[in-house]
Design a protein that fits this description.
The chain has about 400 residues and is an alpha/beta fold. It has 13 helices and 14 strands. It folds into two domains: about 150 residues, Aspartate Aminotransferase, domain 1 (Alpha-Beta Complex); about 240 residues, Aspartate Aminotransferase, domain 2 (3-Layer(aba) Sandwich), CATH 3.40.640.
Length: about 400
């Protein structure tokens, strides 16, 4: 009898993917579900980006290419890092991956050994911990509570560091909380990491252009250039340019690390879609003004959702600085019973009953390492957000 690999022990299915699948099943059965579970922009990929992909395909740009990415896209990524982040990476310090997720996976697989530790501030994207486990490392969680705005505190980071720490991996603006670190916040974090020269640093900047109310984004290698030689700066086209399905991620880091990641990628997926790379060149080098317009729409949606959720009994919703999620606390809903007769003892109970009874898909905070919270994505149209929040209010009013 064959068995599964031990490396899969403790590696869980993505909770957001699972909730989205349950919502799809309900829709297929004719139920009108409001999907607030997926972190996917509802905007279309820009026309000039699609046109660039079409032109590349017509020109025969459909053959195998270098595993680490085309020179043309690496040059565009280099320009992007210079323009947006004040970072200058040589071409051999840049890798193109099948989404930002693969860049993170490549890095962990290329560097982690059994017994190594990866520090992950929580709440955190579901996949970080499981990718660390897959690479043989142990995730170490650092709590970032709501009373600190869900931001990483330098003292908490330092308390988590041990001789086994291989990586510190953080993501601001954050999925699921939307929290973002100011330059002062990031400098405090950098000051800690300067004292530990053997620790690698990974920053997932996927939401850098989704920031509001005049907040200024910064990334750690920009704030503290002395950390650049051991920092992997990860980004991609998915969130910024509404290109989730194109699967284009990229990163900049020390050449030796990038070479090792290239090796991992070459033995797993090989290179990235040729037409997707051509499309991303157009995205990075093309007009950027529309990003501010889209961010303004997301800000309006954030304000709407925060206001409506705070009107629901038992819910307290913090207003975040970025991304397109809110992470409301549902402590006031626990210990009660829904109108459908379901006991609500955990945030998992809450999201399950909400989907079953009011047909609103969200994700439990426990999947991101923090309870009792739920993640609500506002990357959807305003009408759906109003209806979804109204259903959440009705659900909470019905708790006894």
């Amino acid at each position: 009898m064959w068995t599964l690999a031990d490396r899969l022990n403790g590696v869980a299915e993505s909770a957001s993917t699972a909730m989205a699948e349950k919502a799809r099943q309900l829709r297929a059965a004719g139920v009108k579900v409001i999907g607030l579970a997926m972190g996917e922009p509802d905007f279309a990929t820009p026309d000039h980006v699609i046109a660039a992909a079409h032109a590349a395909a017509l020109a025969g740009d459909t053959k195998y290419l270098p595993v680490s990415g085309t020179k043309a896209l690496k040059e565009a990524v280099r320009r992007k890092f210079r323009r947006d982040n004040g970072l200058d990476y040589a071409l051999e310090e840049i890798l193109i991956a099948n989404g930002g997720k693969q860049a993170i996976f490549d890095a962990l697989m290329a560097t982690c050994n059994t017994g190594d530790e990866v520090i992950i501030p929580t709440p955190a994207w579901i996949s970080y911990a499981d990718m660390a486990k897959f690479a043989g490392a142990t995730p170490v969680f650092v709590n970032c509570p709501q009373n600190n705005g869900f931001k990483l505190q330098a003292a908490a980071l330092e308390a988590a560091i041990t001789p086994r720490t291989k990586w510190v991996l953080f993501n601001f603006p954050n999925n699921p909380s939307g929290a973002a670190c100011s330059r002062d916040d990031m400098q405090a974090i950098a000051s800690v990491l300067l004292r530990y020269p053997n620790i690698l640093i990974m920053t997932d900047d996927m939401y850098e252009h989704l920031i509001y109310d005049g907040f200024r984004f910064c990334t750690i290698a920009e704030v503290e250039p002395r950390l650049k030689t051991r920092t992997l700066t990860v980004n991609g086209a998915s969130k910024t340019y509404a290109m989730t399905g194109w699967r284009i991620g990229f990163c900049g880091g020390p050449a030796a690390l990038i070479k090792a990641m290239d090796n991992v990628q070459g033995q797993s997926t090989n290179g990235v879609s040729t037409v997707g790379q051509a499309a991303t060149i157009a995205a990075l080098d093309g007009p950027q003004d529309f990003l501010r317009d889209r961010a303004a729409v997301y800000r309006e949606r954030r304000d709407l959702v925060v206001d409506l959720l705070n009107q629901a009994p038992g819910i307290s919703c913090h207003k975040p600085e970025g991304a397109f999620y809110v992470f409301p606390n549902i402590a006031g809903c626990l210990g009660k019973t829904s109108q459908g007769g379901r006991r609500i003892d955990t945030d998992t109970d809450f999201v399950a009953a909400l989907l079953e009874e009011k047909h609103v898909a969200t994700v439990q905070g426990s999947a991101y390492g923090m309870s009792p919270y739920v993640r609500v994505s506002y990357a959807t149209d305003t009408a759906s957000l109003r209806e979804g929040c109204a259903r959440i209010q009705a659900f909470c009013h019905g708790l006894q």
